[in-house]
Known about the structure:
There is one protein chain. This protein is an alpha/beta fold. Helix content is 49%, strand content 13%. It has an eight-stranded mixed beta sheet, sandwiched between helices. Strand 5, helix 10 and strand 6 form a beta-alpha-beta unit. It is elongated and about 65 Å long. The mean pLDDT is 91. The structure holds guanosine-5'-triphosphate and magnesium ion.
Amino acid sequence: MFGKLTAALKEGLRKTKEKILGGIRAILPFGRELDADLVDQLEEHLYTADIGPKTVAKMMAAVRTEWKERRIKTTDECFFFLKSHVKGILASEGSNLRRAASGPTVILIAGVNGTGKTTSIAKIAHRLKKEGTVILAAGDTFRAAASEQLGMWADRLGVRLIRHDNGADPAAVAYDAVEAAISSKATWLIIDTAGRLHTQGNLMAELEKVKRIIRKRIPEAPHETLLVLDATTGQNAIVQAAEFGKILDLTGLVLTKLDGTAKGGAIIGIRDQVKIPVKFVGVGEKIEDLEDFDPDSFVEALFEPPETKA
Ligand SMILES: Nc1nc2c(ncn2[C@@H]2O[C@H](COP(=O)(O)OP(=O)(O)OP(=O)(O)O)[C@@H](O)[C@H]2O)c(=O)[nH]1
Ligand SMILES: [Mg+2]
């Protein structure tokens, strides 16, 4: 696990940082006494920073308590309190993937349409193939182009793809893929699924069936069930995590499209409201554009002072 900030993550967070940190710094310039007006301004700013109202309310309650009890008296103290508070919200038990004690480790990927599931699978496979054999399963049999898209990635990565015809039962694809992973002694099996809305009851039931079928063959699988969320959808992502969590035992989140958005503050709200660790963040469309989520580096990236001008 690396704790270092990569250039891609820094660059990806640039707009978010301008919005969040820029605003906070304008309200809390160094070396001033904190007063009620500044606290109100800070609150207003945070409400516009895509963090989400519930989380901002909690953050501000904490700030006001610290201030009333005179533990923070200056703008600097307030700034550093906020920083460590956000770190506390984001802290998690680490972004390492769980692994099977023996046999293939099965990773099931789910999420609503277009969040970046298939792309994230390719990115994860690209990493994991350095540590063993990877098999991909085209469990999105719903859209004609879906297995072609995954097939293209499989070719590029030089990994095996298990697919059926379009319209086939995704659970059957999953079953075959698990069989193939066991018999070929693969290290990893990553199963793609069709995008679906949590309101589509039949499609959610289909997902549950996929999981059931996998378990028939490997009872402790899937070892990871990752929900892919588009970070730019903010509050919506929180609802998606809650709803998918009812059907699947989610073990991790992949937050995509952090690059180029000013809405990266949503991660703070998502992490606060959804008690599932963020395992990866997507910072671009290229195969390397996936980062382990390291809360400390993330907060440093958001709160570190801008490059000082001479
Ligand atoms: N900028 C950026 N684009 C991304 C990222 N991840 C995915 N995308 C893009 O988002 C679009 C959708 O990605 P897919 O991987 O096809 O999404 P999906 O969830 O599999 O979509 P469906 O299968 O249709 O539900 C593509 O254009 C990707 O290149 C990311 O981290 N950053
Ligand atoms: Mg897809």
